[in-house]
Amino acid sequence: MFVVLPLGIILWFNSWFLVDSEHSAVVSRKGDFLKVVGPGKYSKIPLIDHVTQIPSGTLYIRSSAPKEFYLYTREKVYLSYEIEWAICSPESAYYLTIDGDYSLLEKSIVRAWSPITMVLVLNYKKKQDLVKDIASLDSSIKSELQEYLQDRGVCIEHVFTKI
């Protein structure tokens, strides 16, 4: 009796979870995806169901240092970036997160940015042309990143490139 009552109370308190307004949650049962829930209070089966909180707002990635690229004429340019992104499919993103850590998703974005940008920058002959056309470059990078990341549950909202 003295063991059963405290154990029952612990299990009862662990059968509820709360999702705040800035997150959605992915519920998995024995490691398999079960459902996505929005903000609110929900029940789960203790010790069987696992809840992973996923941010539902805009996330940001900024380059730590400018990266070197070459124009068509072999002229060097240094570019840095800021990328605004969001998790648009929590179910897809769930498989690339570990207990709510979405750094694998960020790494996928950063790794894709360099080769995409490198290929696009090679189309320019002069730095001045690149400076004038930076909005178009940003738009092209955004669409290429979105296409590359579509199966990862990521939506690219904005790309800002700085020379």
Task: Write a structural description.
The protein contains five helices and nine strands, in the order αββββββββααααβ. The longest helix has 19 residues, at 103-121. Strands 6, 7, 8 and 9 form a four-stranded antiparallel beta sheet that branches. The chain has 163 residues and is of the alpha+beta class. It has two domains: 4-55, no CATH class; 59-162, Tetrahydropterin Synthase, Chain A (2-Layer Sandwich). α3 packs across α5 (134-149). It is rod-shaped.
Topology:
Elements: H1 4-13, E1 16-19, E2 23-29, E3 32-37, E4 40-43, E5 49-55, E6 59-62, E7 67-70, E8 76-87, H2 90-94, H3 103-121, H4 127-132, H5 134-149, E9 154-162
Antiparallel strand pairs: 1-4, 2-3, 2-5, 6-8, 7-8, 8-9
Helix pairs in contact: 3-5
